């Protein structure tokens, strides 16, 4: 087998979950000891830093419940899980949580934990910085993964401040990775840790820009965007009052230790994560990621601004996304 075929196979395995291959439909921990309360957590094996504070808090005993772990396989699966009200605690995308809330899901956003996820990669020698991208002609193609990437909405919002209107071509991650390795596409928009996984297999690619940093530079705002976090089922809160506050406090407590030693968070991720993505890839991705835990209430203005980019059609006459009053959890 040729080296390129071997590399393609290795990357396909690393990206299986990104591509929607359901490796582990319902992976669970063993039964809890000591009669602890068990709460179901629906998460993904592809998000790393956004959930490290949660798993580290659980590993260190800052949270008293035992996790019953389930994995959603793609964004459509997450939406279906949320709309069905399945689960007690959810790890996922802020826009997915908000969309579910607007459709009646009993959900409260506890914390924002994913702030810097999307990057632009290229193999083109004429593109070295984001300014080179700004100079590209209208209609130039940027290949994106996963489909319905919120980063596309962010870049569309920058068209009013000088970014050309590009053609964003959506692909499943494994499909786009193979195109990039064959040299069939040379300008890509991807999230971590997919960025690191692809760079390891396609050395002709390099990172030229962070979407969040360029958003901050072109708008004068903070170079971060509230993209992922932790939410709870409000029906679960009725049975376990104060769970949202305990979650927020426990995860906030882990922020500084994780900033000091990000690898300590890797050690507390569920063992099943290794079946989604190699630990070495996760470790390398930390160089471009960021550890930051903020309550939803504390981040409300940033969340609303972000959602107005992702769901412009939902912005009311008053300029506000109509979310339930109790959607934003935590203290300000």
TrEMBL record:
Signal peptide: 1-19
Protein name: ABC-type transport system, periplasmic component
Alphabetical keyword list: Signal
């Amino acid at each position: 087998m040729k080296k390129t075929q071997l590399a393609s196979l290795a990357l396909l395995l690393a990206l299986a979950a990104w591509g929607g291959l359901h490796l582990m439909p319902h992976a669970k921990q063993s039964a809890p000891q000591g009669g602890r309360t068990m709460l179901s957590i629906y998460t993904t094996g592809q998000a790393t830093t956004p959930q490290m504070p949660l798993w580290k808090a659980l590993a260190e005993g800052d949270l008293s419940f035992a996790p019953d772990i389930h994995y959603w396989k793609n964004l459509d699966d997450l939406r279906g899980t949320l709309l069905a009200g399945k689960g007690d605690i959810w790890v996922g995308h802020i826009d997915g949580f908000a969309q579910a809330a607007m459709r009646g899901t009993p959900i409260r956003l506890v914390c924002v934990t994913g702030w810097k996820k999307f990057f632009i990669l290229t193999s083109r020698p004429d593109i070295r910085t984001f300014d080179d991208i700004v100079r590209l002609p209208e209609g130039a193609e940027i290949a994106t993964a996963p489909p319905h990437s919120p980063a596309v909405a962010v870049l569309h919002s920058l068209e009013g401040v000088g970014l050309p209107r590009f053609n964003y071509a959506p692909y499943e991650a494994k499909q786009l990775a193979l195109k990039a390795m064959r040299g069939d596409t040379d300008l890509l928009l991807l999230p971590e840790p997919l960025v690191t996984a692809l760079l390891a297999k396609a050395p002709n690619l390099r990172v030229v820009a962070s979407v969040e940093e360029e958003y901050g530079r072109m708008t004068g705002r903070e170079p971060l965007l509230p993209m992922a976090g932790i939410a709870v089922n409000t029906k679960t809160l009725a049975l376990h009052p104060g769970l949202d506050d305990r979650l927020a406090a426990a995860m906030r407590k882990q922020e500084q230790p994780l900033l000091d030693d990000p690898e300590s968070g890797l050690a507390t991720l569920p063992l099943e994560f290794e079946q989604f993505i190699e630990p070495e890839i996760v470790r390398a991705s930390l160089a471009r990621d960021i550890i930051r835990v903020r309550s939803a209430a504390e981040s409300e203005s940033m969340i609303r601004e972000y959602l107005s980019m992702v769901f412009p059609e939902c912005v009311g006459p008053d300029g506000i996304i109509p979310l339930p009053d109790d959607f934003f959890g935590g203290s300000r």
